[in-house]
Amino acid sequence: MNTLHYIFDPLCGWCYAAAPLIEAAREVRGLKLALHGGGMLTGPNRRAITPQWRDYVMPHDRRIAELTGQPFGEAYFEGLLRDTSAVMDSAPPTTAILVAEEIAGRGLEMAHRVQRAHYLEGRRIAEPEVLIALAIELGLDATAFTAAWRRLEGPATAAHIRDSRAWLARAGGQGFPTLALEADDGTLTRIEPGEWLGRPAAFAAALRERVPASPDEAPGAIPHCGLDGCKL
Predict the structure, then answer these.
(1) CA distance 24 to 200
(2) Are 35 and 180 in contact (CB under 8 A)?
């Protein structure tokens, strides 16, 4: 089975732009999806919301909305981005994604949910209580989620981020999002997401052309941020 490696960050606006592409890729038969949270805003790179940050990200957010139709809410623009007491930290939402994947195989759903919570609902996705609430909204068991959270936060999440950075280097990426298709023989081919933004169906079709049909398919079945991404 071929694997699409998705190297991303929950607080990267251009990863939010790519979310429909990743959702479309999930429907490609014979293709496995591997999530790699890169920790863009972790450790010394954690930052508080400031007026300067709001002025910096809003042009990118508007560009993303124009290109992809991804929604941004007033609770984000006029709420979260004006809340100077809010802190952006990629580690907690990355932990939540790891937990959702471990306990229910629903890491991608959690990734998309935390993105919507941030960009649409203006919620503080660096706060564990918010992430637990999102998990419950997805139908995950709160007790199981909390127990797994205690195991996977801190060092385990940091190890995942280091591994993700290694995948980023292996793929020849320089920031988020980076996509790379791994063939059965281990060959890794980087895919530029920018050319597909706003065209998830076309992206899925292109992946189907690259991914061999699985045995149960009939032969021939069709089954620092910049405007192009977030740099490290």
Answers:
(1) 6
(2) no
Domain extents in the chain: 2-231
C-alpha Rg value of the chain to the nearest Å: 17
60-99 pLDDT tens trace? 999 999 999 999 999 999 999 999 999 999 999 999 999 9
DSSP states along 85-101: T-EE-SHHHHHHHHHHH
Q: What is the pLDDT of residues 99-137, one digit of tens each?
A: 999 999 999 999 999 999 999 999 999 999 999 999 999
CATH code of domain 2-231: 3.40.30.10
Q: What integer pLDDT is reported at residue 130 of this predicted model?
A: 98
Say which residue the tokens 């991608």 belong to: 108
The encoded tokens of residue 156 equal: 């385990």
> Cis before residue 177, ω within 30 degrees of 0?
yes
Count of alpha carbons within 13 angstroms of residue 119, beta-carbon side:
26
Rounded Cα gap, residues 139 and 158, in angstroms: 26
The span from the CA of 164 to the CA of 123, in Å, is 25
Global pTM? 0.91
CA atoms of 224 and 232, how far apart (whole Å): 6
Percent of the chain topping pLDDT 70? 91
Side by side, the strands of the sheet bearing 225-226 are 175-176, 229-231, 225-226
